[in-house]
What does this fold into?
Amino acid sequence: MRIEDILKLSSDIPLSKSVIVNLLYTYGLINGELNKVLKPYDVSIQQFNVLRILRGRGDKPASLSTVQDRMINKMSNTTRLVDKLITKQLVKKETNKTNKRKIDISITAGGLNFLKEIDVMIDSKEVEMVNSLTHEEATELIRLLGKLRLIAN
It folds into this structure.
């Protein structure tokens, strides 16, 4: 379905605007579906992303700037996200042993267990959302999105 029809626009929009509006609208739909999976656990997509970043570092803690650099959504307030995860006992923060001005953030055993549980549901939802694309279409979409990211950076 055309984005103009979905948004009930009375006229066509320029191709460049259509590309951007389609991307943003699709992002909103995908974001909503993933949030539905996470909502019962009182965790946002951004918090989930922080947990995955920390898990990926293994036993090596991360600084706030390291987490921020690796976030998918760069607009997130990383400090607030980490504080919420600390309250949920999914991550912990400690003063860096070599530089007292830095804070080390790491995932807890509870955070790792949470990810083990939720990964299956998120993976399933992602497969469900992409299932209508062939392997070739998915690969081409990734290539085209990568091309757009090069222009945007």
